[in-house]
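quick one: adenine bound model?
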Amino acid sequence: MIIDIVTLFPNMFEGFIKESIIKRAIEKGNVEINLVNPRDFTLDKHRHVDDTPYGGGSGMVLTCQPMFDCLRSIPSPKRVILMTPQGKPFKQEEAVRLSKEEHIVLVCGHYEGFDERIRTLCDEEISIGDYVLTGGEIPAMAISDSIIRLLDGVITTESHLYDSHSNGLLEHPQYTKPAVYEGMSVPEVLLNGNHKLINEWRNKEALRTTYKKRPDLLVNYKFSPQEAKWLEEIKLEEKKEEVFE
Ligand code: ADE
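yep, here:
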């Protein structure tokens, strides 16, 4: 997959592409990341990318010409996505959808805003949450990261089968050695090697975690008969736990 990131601040991506799983994915050829700077497409001596807003007001606005020329320099076919707090809220299902594309372009706004006509260059707009950042660079990193880890060969498929949000539930709890730490024990079922029981425990605990931390996710969740039964058990167990506390 190719991810082109259109940014006035390519240095912000140094750590992102040079560390850990993303670095390895690039080295292995799972993904190619190109940083493209609209400033390289300016036509004036001072390489201006912004100007004062028509109608007055504070702040500067990104101008059309560098952005249009920059985006047109990137070969097609490509899916162009604008990072903006006005965009569609980013969810795991969007990460899955975009991970199937061959070539995406993430466009980062910066400063106070961009000329509205830049929107005509984009196929869709994405927001990473209802808050405003200084630019689209952190959203572009968050979105690329969530996509890249889903690409074949980046991490084992097993690792994202149980990801929080991948099936509508949060992930079950995880433990590693030692079996007892400061008096806190790992659940017995995980130590006995019975994979059927372990899977059942994981599925039920994923449901419990979601019920306790994000009950809103269960409103539209399609429960299997087994899960519906577990949920009733969990409600009783959690009530008992409350009384006990
Ligand atoms: N640019 C500034 N804030 C943003 C947000 N919340 N999501 C995407 N892009 C942004």
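Residues 172 and 206 are 4 Å apart (CA to CA).
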